[in-house]
Design a protein that fits this description.
This protein has 110 residues and is of the alpha+beta class. It contains 2 helices and 5 strands, in the order H-H-E-E-E-E-E. Strands 1, 2, 3, 4 and 5 form a 5-stranded antiparallel β-sheet that branches. A hairpin with a 5-residue loop joins strand 3 and strand 4.
C-alpha cells in the first residue's frame, strides 16, 4: 500500500507544480471563440484596439515547458487604416500571454 500512496503523492505533486507554472487552462468564449488573455494582449499591442476582430481560434494545447498554446487569426487596422489579417500562436501562463510565435511554429490539424 505504501508503494501506491508514494506514487499517488508524486502524481499529485507533479500536477500541483504544473498548475503553479501553467495556471488554469484558458477557456474559449462561446460568443466569439476568443480567449480573454489573447484579447487583452492584442488590444494593448494594436495600433487601433477598437478595430480588433477575432476570426478564429484553435483549441488549447499544453506545450511542455512553455505554457498553454492557442492559435488565433484576427484582423485589425494598420497605421494606414487598412484592415490586415494576421495569425499567431499565443503562449499563455497564469491567464497572461507570455510569448507570441508565428503561425507556422507548431503543426496542428484542425
Amino acid at each position: 500500500m505504501k508503494k501506491y500512496s508514494d506514487k499517488l503523492e508524486k502524481i499529485e505533486a507533479k500536477e500541483m507544480a504544473e498548475k503553479i507554472f501553467y495556471g488554469d487552462k484558458p477557456t474559449q468564449s462561446s460568443y466569439d471563440g476568443s480567449y480573454t488573455a489573447v484579447k487583452i494582449y492584442l488590444k494593448q499591442a494594436m495600433h487601433d484596439p477598437s478595430s480588433l476582430d477575432i476570426n478564429n481560434c484553435s483549441s488549447v494545447y499544453k506545450i511542455k515547458d512553455e505554457g498553454w498554446a492557442v492559435n488565433c487569426s484576427y484582423r485589425g487596422k494598420n497605421t494606414f487604416g487598412g484592415l490586415v489579417l494576421n495569425s499567431n500562436w499565443f503562449i499563455i501562463r497564469q491567464n497572461t500571454v507570455v510569448d507570441v510565435k508565428s503561425s507556422d511554429a507548431y503543426s496542428v490539424s484542425y
